[in-house]
Here is the input.
Amino acid sequence: APLLELRDVSFTYPDGTRVLDRVSLAVPRGARTALVGPSGAGKSTLLSLVERFSDVTGGAVLVDGVDVRELPRAALRARLGYVEQEAPVLAGTLRENLVLAAPDAGDDELAAVLAAVGLTGVATRSPAGLDAPVGEGGVLLSGGERQRLAISRSLLARPELLLLDEPTASLDARNERALQDALDAVAERTTLLVVAHRLSTVVGSDQIVVLDGGRVVGVGTHAELLETT
Ligand code: ADP
Ligand code: ADP
Here is the structure.
């Protein structure tokens, strides 16, 4: 079975808004899948069903072939990593920002996840290194660096599937490129599902699923989708 599968998933909010209409897709283990579509297409709602913040109103979400409604939420979330659109930086040091989900991680492991997202330099910006406070009076980070710090924080928990919601939405061109490079490296270690509203931001994906008005309207590689649109 694929790592994640949606079978004929429909979802209607309690107020009656129907947001997903018989959506089927498969996220193979080890691959990088993108979910693309305009604002309002239902992308965030779909992610919330995977994490079980809500439950489907039709169809099923399966992880490794098992309906997520049969898995304890804690067990499910231990297998998933999620990085929101404007990932927060926490009060505290770089180390505290990283080890949230992995309190026992050693310095080598911290260095490795920082390197994986191109952030090796942040730990040497201050003489205090990883123990420098983040923010005012310590290590200042750009929006893109904060996003990548959040990704390295998730990596430390070794998720089987990492969900990224619009990781480049608020970034300038330089930070977007750095984030793309980071995703290339992260894709070597874990299965990725990346949500975006523009096709250009998901060029490196193995598979792109296009969602519009709550329906899947296209599936293919970047090149295949460009040919048909
Ligand atoms: P996307 O992430 O693709 O922009 P969303 O999943 O955020 O799309 O939203 C899809 C649709 O669901 C939108 O029309 C939005 O207004 C609606 N929606 C989102 N949250 C709720 C809610 N809590 N109750 C009712 N409708 C909602
Ligand atoms: P919000 O906009 O949600 O109020 P802020 O942007 O003010 O949040 O900051 C949230 C956290 O991020 C705070 O702990 C703050 O110290 C830290 N922070 C803010 N700006 C930066 C920055 N440029 N680099 C690193 N940390 C920052």
Q: What stands out?
A: The two ends are 31 Å apart (CA to CA). The chain has a mean pLDDT of 92. The pocket of adenosine-5'-diphosphate (ligand 2) is lined by residues 89, 91, 134-136, 140-141 (CB under 6 Å).
